[in-house]
Each structure stands twice: as structure tokens, then as C-alpha cells.
Amino acid sequence: MRSALVIGTGLIGTSVALALAGRGVRVHLTDRDTDRVRTAASLGAGTDRPPEGPVDLAVVAVPPAHIPAAVAEVQRRGAARGCIDVGSVKGGPRREAEALGCDLTTYLGTHPMAGKETTGPLAAGADLFEGRPWVLTPTAGTDTEVLNLALELVALCRAVPVVMDADAHDRAVALVSHTPQLVSSLVAARLETADETAVRLCGQGIRDVTRIAASDPAMWIDILSANPGPVADVLAAVADDLAETVRALRALQSADDVKRTGGAAGIEDVLRRGNSGRARVPGKHGQAPAAYETVAVLIGDRPGELARIFADAGRAGVNIEDVRIEHATGQQAGHVQLMVEPDAAPVLAAALRERGWAIRQQ
Fold first, then answer.
1. How far, in Å, CA of 323 to CA of 296, rounded?
2. Where is the Prephenate/arogenate dehydrogenase domain (predicted)?
């Protein structure tokens, strides 16, 4: 691939452009918002000048509702040998593109499974897709050249290609992406009118659950409007579980021992099912999640503290598998939770204590 046209310079489009430009591809940028194009170009994502002729690949990075029209325009102008989109919904846009008369042999729907709570070109990065799944939804009629260009794009972005049926993809993202966004927002919405004393008690659990609730509502309205049925199906199942859980909790308030026992069993059931589901979430390198031990270390809110603790872990010969920071409310301190292999935990704890770190018992 020598040249590309990126249509849409938001987070995803600009990140694609940065990755391609950084690997020697000549990238042309376009967007209805000229300020975003200029910003993306200033970041080194490409040029805002139109290409002089057809490019190798056009990348449509616009909201799902606008994908079909954008693909049709690319094909009408003969702007590229092949065209892909990077939207988060696949089945509906492809059917609408077909209804508009688009040539589906030179168009391929794709979806990089990466993103942030923040949007726009300033949030973009060339490394956004590294190691992340990138779904491709070819059909029997997809031109081999276009599929190869898409695979080359995925490789240049250092992502991992995953081939799926378009409608299966939409059902999958309804479960693992779209529903979690709504559930996170529903929980966060309880905080809007909560008493200030309750909000001050927020810890890492509520931060984890509500992190993605900071996402742009307008962006999510576009996404959910393109995939409402599958998301509603998942939420309906969640609603059934919620209703059962509410009944179980009410039973725990009963003076009747039998009802309380039944309520406890209901709560245990949903918690154990949650354990089983969480255990299926892929861990490091896409493998089954490992049972890591956590070494929690008290750190001050000062420059260089994290670098120092990582350096001390390295001197101890311990590989940090994952890390989390738990901030202390109202204090210039917190705990960094270092996840390591179980047999490495006592080694790391002893080494850090020796170097003066305060270890919190788990």
C-alpha cells in the first residue's frame, strides 16, 4: 500500500492515518469539519490536499449512519481501488450500501476493537490498535485485492485480524461493547443526585464500573441507533437478571428463614455466574486469564514514583503482568497494585520492603 484516503478525522480515523503515515504510506485526509482535518494534518497524520488520482485504499471513518453514503461517494468518484469502513456496526451499513447500488466486491466492512472515552484527532495515537482485534467481514464476493489491502492495513496498524460474519459481529459487540456502555452509564447516573458524602466514598470499584460512562453521548447515539435490536436483546436478559436479583434481595429482608435462604441462594447464583463469565474474558496476549497475585504498595503523588517502583521490581527479577492505581480520596497518596505470577509475589514484596516501600497486606 502506497497511498490511502482517510475520510473522517476523529479518534479512529486520525489514529489509522497516523499509523499509516508513520510507516511510509502517503495519506490524504478529508472531513466535513475542516478544523479537524487541519489538526490531524498538524499531528503528522497526512495532508489535507486531495489526491491527484485514485489511491490504493479509502478508509471511511464516519458514524455508522453515514457509512453507506460515504462509500457510494468514494465509488462514484473512483477515488480508490478498494474501500473499507471502520465503523462499530457492520450488517446494517452493508445492506444500506447495497441498496444504494454500491459495488460490494470492492467494499469491505471492518471494525478495530479499540477506542477511548475521549474523541477527536487530539485523542488519536498511532499505537491505538497495537495488539487489538480488528474484525473483517468479507463475503464470498469480496475482491481478493481489497481483502489483501485490508489485511495490509491491519498489519501496518499492528492489530490482529479476526474474520467474522457481519451480523454475528453486531450481536457480539452488542454484548461486549454496546451494552457495557449503557450499563456503565446507568450506574454512573445514580451518582448524579447522590449525596456528596456518598460520592466522597467512591473507590476503585465504582471508578472501574463507570470509566466508560465518560464517553461522548452523541457518538454513542450514532452507534446504538445502528444496532438497537441486538443491544435491546442483551439488555432484556440483563433486566430479567436484575428483577430476579431484586426479588432475592427483598427476600433477605424477610423474617422468614426459608425466604432468606432462598434470597441468599439467588444472590449466590448471580455472583457465581458472574465469576464464570469473567473467567472467560481473555487475559494477557489473548490467552485465558491467569490467576495473578497482587502486591499493593503505598506510593506518594510525586514525579518519578512509578518509575522507581517499576525499576525496583525489575532489579528483583520480577515481571509485572498488570498494574492498577488506587487513589486515596483527599490525600496526596495512593496504592499501586502490581499483578504478578503467584510464585513471584513473595519475592517482589520482600524486595520492595527491603528498598523501603510500604506493602499493604491483601
1. 10
2. 2-289
Residue with cell 527479577: 317
DSSP string across 285-324: GGSPPP--EEEEEEEESSTTHHHHHHHHHHHTT----EEE
If you classify domain 3-164 with CATH, what class do you get? alpha beta
Instruction: Give me the CATH code for the 293-360 domain, please.
Output: 3.30.70.260
**Right CATH for 171-279 from 2.170.190.11, 1.10.3660.10, 3.10.180.10, 2.60.120.10:** 1.10.3660.10
pLDDT tens for each residue of 273-298: 999 999 888 766 555 556 788 998 88
C-alpha distance from residue 282 to each of 74, 182, 323, 329, 349 (Å)? 37, 22, 16, 31, 27
Q: How far apart are CA 30 and CA 52, in angstroms?
A: 14
User: 3-class DSSP state for residue 335?
Assistant: strand
Distances (CA, A) of 294 to 18, 130, 161, 298, 343: 36, 26, 32, 13, 11
Please state the domain extents for the chain: 3-164, 171-279, 293-360
C-alpha cell at 255: 423474617
- What is the C-alpha separation between 346 and 362, in angstroms, rounded? 12
Q: How far is CA 277 from CA 47, 182, 270, 345, in A?
A: 45, 19, 10, 26
Which contiguous run of DSSP H or E holds residue 360?
Answer: strand 358-360
Segment 188-223, tens digit of pLDDT: 999 999 999 999 888 888 988 999 999 989 989 999
